[in-house]
Structures are given as structure tokens and as C-alpha cells.
């Protein structure tokens, strides 16, 4: 029997009681609460997002806002409520989502004249006004974005950041005169989402296009960013950028038309795009370890924590002064640094505390460091310790933070790449040749189970070379699937999990396929 790994540290009483590889779900909740990212609320599926996480959100928001301002997207704040009459306008597109819509039906003790839905997304709230505001081609493109909360009363297993009943997001809604402009924007936004994940959160992602079955029903096509959680072996949708075509602008829906340059009436081409607080959950799942959070320096609210290490007869005041001076120097250079001055905790306790909170770099200053005009630095990601000279402290810290950011991404990328296989039986992300919807439905149906069916995530834009008729190396594939899957020259990424459990898929291995 495998012995349970003891993660709680005796000497400090800080730490986690569940290992990441031991019970991933419990580990995740514990990390979020102990690191002070979230608080559990008394409504199931609702969580309080605390300062430590809000700062991460704000850093991403600042980047994204700056980029979309460059794209001439305007800011807006639409209402939280939508009447059922307006919500019904979108009926065809939101079919299937209705059970998730939450309603306000009372004010005090009296029933409202009309029930009000709480927005699950902004289309129905925003598009009636696009219809009023857009008259002719001079009004186009129209581009708006809002940062807000939405409510979707999910019934499947809630999980902080990943699946909550109320969540925060940005939602962008744009209208163009031509499809070409809309197509270009879909990709431009997708690239910003990639940057958020890869360059800020150090999480590798796959950019691609959703299949017809997995796209938003109201969209002409949906592009997405897909991330991978090695511990669950499952893919997770990171953000979406939809081209809505003329579906919503059509006369029978929101009737968003304009006079084109030839004085002819035409419907606008629309896009909508969003990323949400789920980003934070993905980052925690990918980088966290048995000591707690591991924050990439670019999004860490504190990049450096300075800890005084007083020693017996040494001059404590001098050590505290040196810590304060170090913080001042680092902050002046734009580094988010702070000192833990609390005199009622030991340095050891503080080390564990800041490790739990994932601060990328710890600086310890003790009497020996004062004498040698140096500080001791400890990396959160790999535990490496080094002495840094006070003379060139800023440059060295900046370099270290860059290295930490880079190596977090590299190691996550390495883990993800190692899990992408042309294979159906292991706990893997599957890069599989794709045939048609019939097969897609079939795979989804046959792999249904408690950990979720193997549905296609997206068709990656980056496609490995493959020729018609080439057989792919696979540990196994059933004859039927193999036959149909290799017909296509497009590869789709499927999450692992259910395929592996599927006897049907596993049956009838007949061919070894080579890549
Ligand atoms: C839940 C309840 C009601 C998703 C819902 O992805 C409606 C919906 O329309 C709903 N869940 N959707 C699709 C949202 C599509 C779209 N909206 C704007 C986005 C990006 C931003």
C-alpha cells in the first residue's frame, strides 16, 4: 500500500494536508483558501475573490484594456437585468442554456410586473442598442467591451474560478461592414488571449477552431484557446472568440442594419469574445505544488518578499532597516516587493507562509548578509538558493524574475507536450485525425462517463504535416475510428480521460499507424 505523503510541516503547522498528486480536488480547494485567493460563500457555487487573486485579475485587465484601446474598442457598462421578452429574442441561439438563467421575480414582498433575468452573457442586453446606434457605414465598425459579472446557474460540480455560478469576465461585442474585418478581429483577439495565458500566466495553450458541434450555437464559427491540466489529464477551454456572422443582426433577431456605401441596406457582421476569471484557476492548477501556490512573477501581486532573520545578539534594528532599504530600492525599480515585519512569527513560519502564497522570490537578510553586503535569495519555483550582492541587486532580481517566468512556462510546456500523443488509450491530450460530425458524435457518445466525454477541443491552427492516406502511430485505435479518422487531413485535439476508459474504442486494434 502506498503511504500517504505527509505535507503538513510539523515545525510551522503551515502547509497543505493534501498532496497535488494525491487528491487533486482537495489540494486545489486547500491551496486557494490557504493562500487567501478565495473564501467559500454560503451559496453553493459562489466564492469570494480576495485581494491576492483580484490583483492578478487587475494585472491581466490592465494589459488587455491597453491592447483593445489600440484596436479602438470603447468601454461600456450595460445592465445586469434583461427582460424575458428580450431574452427570448435570442432563443434560437441560447437553446440549451435556459436552465442556467437566474431570475429576479420579487421586490420586497411584491411580485415584479415582469420577471427579470440576470444576464448570463451580454448579447441580448447589448444588441438592441447596436440596432439603434448603427445607422450607416460611418457608424461602423462599432466595438464595445465591458468588464462585469454574469450569472449562470450551473448544476454540474462547481469549482472556484473554473466553474462558478457567478463569474467575472470581459465581454467584447463588435460589428463590422464586412466579413473580412470580422474574421481578422477574431484572430487578433485570440492572439491577445494567447498572450494572457502564455506570457502572463506562463500557461501554454493551443489556439484553434471549434467543431460545428462544439461551437457557440449563435456563432458562424468559434475560435478558442485550450489549456491542459496535467493532473486531470483534461483539456480546458481558456477563452473564446466567436464570429457571429450575420446571425444576430438578421431582421428576425436584433435587426442590426446599415446603409452601405452604395446606399443599400445590409446586416452587420458581428463578433463576440470573452475570457474570465477561470484563467486564474487554470494558472493555479498548472503551477501550484505541495507547498501551495506558485505565481508567475508577471502576475504576482508581490514579486519579492523580504524576510528579516534576526539572530541572538545581532543588531535586530539594523537588520530591519536593511530589509526596509531593500524593499525601497526594489520598489523604486518597479518591482513589487514587501517586507514581512511581523515580530510574532519566526522566520521559518514566514518562509512557509509566503511559499503557500506563491511569491516568486524570497529574500532573507541576516547578520552575516549585513557583514558581507549581500542578501540571500530563494526561488519559489525550484527552491534554488543564491547570494546576491547588494550593489547590483535590482539587475539580479529582475533577471531572476524573468528566469522564473520563463522556466514556469517551459516546464508547463514540457509537461503538456509530453501529454500530446497520437494515442487513444493513455491519460493524454489526443491529437487525432478528424473525419466528420458523425464520428465526432459517436466518440462523444461512446465515451460518456463520470469524468466527462471525450469531445473535440479544437482544430489547432498549427497542424503537423500529414498526407492523405498516411497512417498515424497510435498505441491503439479501433478499426472503425481509425478508418474514419485518418480520412481527414485535419487534426483535432481531444481531451484524454474517457477514451481511455472506453472499451468500445479500445476494441479491435488492427493497425499500427505511423507518424
Ligand atoms: C448560459 C445561459 C444563457 C453561454 C449561457 O462566449 C445563455 C448562455 O449564450 C449563452 N452560456 N452562452 C454563450 C455565450 C457566448 C458568448 N457571449 C459573449 C461568448 C463570449 C462573450
From TrEMBL:
Keyword Protein biosynthesis: yes
Catalysed reaction equations from the record: tRNA(Pro) + L-proline + ATP = L-prolyl-tRNA(Pro) + AMP + diphosphate
One cellular-component annotation, GO: cytoplasm
EC class of the enzyme, as a word: ligase
Occurrences of domain Aminoacyl-transfer RNA synthetases class-II family profile (ranges): 82-296
Position of the signal peptide: none
GO biological process: prolyl-tRNA aminoacylation
GO molecular function: ATP binding; proline-tRNA ligase activity
UniProt keywords, alphabetically: Aminoacyl-tRNA synthetase, ATP-binding, Ligase, Nucleotide-binding, Protein biosynthesis
Descriptive protein name: Proline--tRNA ligase
Organism: Dipteronia sinensis
Lineage of the species this protein comes from: Eukaryota, Viridiplantae, Streptophyta, Embryophyta, Tracheophyta
Amino acid at each position: 500500500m502506498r503511504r500517504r505523503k505527509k505535507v503538513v510541516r510539523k515545525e510551522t503547522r503551515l502547509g497543505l494536508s493534501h498532496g497535488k498528486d494525491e487528491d487533486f480536488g482537495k489540494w486545489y480547494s486547500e491551496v486557494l483558501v490557504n493562500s487567501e485567493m478565495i473564501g467559500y460563500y454560503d451559496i453553493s457555487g459562489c466564492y469570494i475573490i480576495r485581494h491576492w487573486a483580484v490583483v492578478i485579475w487587475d494585472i491581466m485587465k490592465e494589459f488587455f484594456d491597453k491592447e483593445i484601446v489600440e484596436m479602438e474598442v470603447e468601454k461600456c457598462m450595460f445592465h445586469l437585468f434583461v427582460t424575458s421578452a428580450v431574452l427570448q429574442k435570442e432563443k434560437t441561439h441560447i437553446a440549451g442554456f435556459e436552465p442556467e438563467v437566474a431570475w429576479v421575480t420579487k421586490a420586497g414582498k411584491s411580485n415584479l410586473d415582469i420577471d427579470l433575468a440576470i444576464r448570463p452573457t451580454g448579447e441580448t442586453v447589448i444588441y438592441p442598442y447596436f440596432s439603434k446606434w448603427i445607422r450607416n457605414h460611418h457608424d461602423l465598425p462599432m466595438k464595445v467591451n465591458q468588464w462585469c459579472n454574469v450569472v449562470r446557474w450551473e448544476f454540474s460540480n462547481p469549482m472556484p474560478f473554473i466553474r462558478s455560478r457567478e463569474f467575472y469576465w470581459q465581454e467584447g461585442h463588435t460589428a463590422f461592414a464586412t466579413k473580412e474585418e470580422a474574421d481578422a478581429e477574431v484572430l487578433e483577439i485570440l492572439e491577445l488571449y494567447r498572450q494572457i495565458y502564455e506570457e502572463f500566466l506562463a500557461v501554454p495553450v493551443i489556439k484553434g477552431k471549434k467543431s460545428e458541434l462544439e461551437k457557440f450555437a449563435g456563432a458562424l464559427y468559434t475560435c478558442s484557446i485550450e489549456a491542459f491540466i496535467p493532473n486531470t489529464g483534461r483539456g480546458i477551454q481558456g477563452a473564446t472568440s466567436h464570429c457571429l456572422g450575420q446571425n444576430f443582426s438578421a431582421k428576425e433577431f436584433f435587426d442590426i442594419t446599415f446603409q452601405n456605401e452604395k446606399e443599400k441596406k445590409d446586416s452587420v457582421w458581428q463578433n463576440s469574445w470573452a475570457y474570465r476569471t477561470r484563467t486564474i484557476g487554470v494558472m493555479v492548477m498548472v503551477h501550484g505544488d505541495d507547498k501551495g501556490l506558485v505565481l508567475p512573477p508577471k502576475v504576482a501581486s508581490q514579486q519579492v518578499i523580504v524576510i528579516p532573520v534576526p539572530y541572538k545578539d545581532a543588531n535586530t534594528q539594523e537588520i530591519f532597516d536593511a530589509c526596509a532599504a531593500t524593499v525601497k530600492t526594489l520598489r523604486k525599480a518597479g518591482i513589487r516587493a514587501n517586507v514581512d515585519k511581523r515580530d510574532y512569527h519566526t522566520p521559518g513560519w514566514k518562509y512557509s507562509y509566503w511559499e503557500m502564497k506563491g511569491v516568486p522570490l524570497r529574500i532573507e537578510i541576516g547578520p552575516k548578509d549585513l557583514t558581507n553586503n549581500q542578501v540571500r535569495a530563494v526561488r519559489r519555483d525550484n527552491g534554488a538558493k543564491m547570494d546576491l550582492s547588494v550593489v547590483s541587486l535590482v539587475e539580479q532580481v529582475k533577471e531572476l524574475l524573468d528566469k522564473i517566468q520563463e522556466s514556469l512556462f517551459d516546464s508547463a510546456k514540457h509537461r503538456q507536450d509530453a501529454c500530446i500523443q497520437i494515442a487513444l488509450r493513455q491519460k493524454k491530450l489526443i491529437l487525432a485525425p478528424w473525419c466528420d460530425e458523425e464520428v465526432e458524435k459517436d466518440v462523444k457518445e461512446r465515451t460518456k462517463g463520470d469524468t466527462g466525454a471525450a469531445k473535440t477541443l479544437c482544430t489547432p491552427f498549427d497542424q503537423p504535416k500529414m498526407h492523405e492516406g498516411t497512417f498515424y502511430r497510435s498505441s491503439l485505435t479501433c478499426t472503425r475510428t481509425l478508418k474514419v479518422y485518418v480520412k481527414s487531413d485535419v487534426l483535432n485535439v481531444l481531451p484524454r480521460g474517457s477514451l481511455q476508459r472506453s472499451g468500445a474504442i479500445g476494441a479491435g486494434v488492427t493497425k499500427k499507424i505511423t507518424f
